[in-house]
Amino acid sequence: MYIDYDVADRIATITLNRPEAANAQNAELLEELDQAWTRAATDNDVAVIILRAEGKHFSAGHDLKSNEPVPEKITLEDIYRIEARRYLEFSLRWRNVPKPSIAAVQGRCIAGGLLLAWPCDLIIAADDALFSDPVVAMGIGGVEYHGHTWELGPRKAKEILFTGRAVTATEAEQIGMVNRVVPRAELDTQARALAEHIATMPSFGLRQAKRAVNQTLDVQGFYAAIQSVFEIHQTGHGNALSVGGWPVLVNLDQMKTAIKKAD
């Protein structure tokens, strides 16, 4: 079990509990996480959802050391099928859960970690939080749920992708990617206090407010952009396959180097 789930006072708390691996996302963690989101979404006793993580880091992204077997010959169709489910469909489903959600982020939120935090309605960041997407070093233009332009703005998104550098919690607050920055020791209590306040509001009003904002973004092109950029993401994998390998395996060293440079 990599996910803990708890409900108290109309608040569901979903906890990533793989701290020994910096909450890196293997297949089991993501499947359990999706089940937890579905459970919270369908429980009438839940008004607000908190997504948090045990340990030093929120999530180091996709598990590049996963023991999941890789076929001797993997095709772009295989990669597309796996990633469409785990890294696109899941994130979009979590984004559209008809209840307010809050991500409480500490430490590293790297690449695939963004796919967990960005779908949440609100983000509370600890003062040690760092957000990065260094996958250009792997020959890929950004992670699968490509919310970069919407979350960072176009020029900042390009800077972060081109350089691989991390965005600090303070900078993320300044550009509107996170709602507030709090001391690390207060992260859980501050997220909980916010959730408790929101939970006092009428559930139908909260649903309608969330739907209004999300639909406004979709009318502006968010949903179509996420879908179309996923196709661009897959061309990175196709290019890697054409020159001899699956990018997670071929470019692991480049990815590690990019993460170190972003520190």
From TrEMBL:
Where in this chain does the entry annotate a coiled-coil region?
none
Pfam families this protein is in? ECH_1 (PF00378)
Q: From which domain of life does this come? A: Bacteria
For this chain, one GO molecular function annotation is:
catalytic activity
Q: Which family does it belong to?
A: Belongs to the enoyl-CoA hydratase/isomerase family.
Q: Protein name, please? A: Enoyl-CoA hydratase
Organism expressing this protein natively: Parafrankia colletiae
Give the lineage: Bacteria, Bacillati, Actinomycetota, Actinomycetes, Frankiales
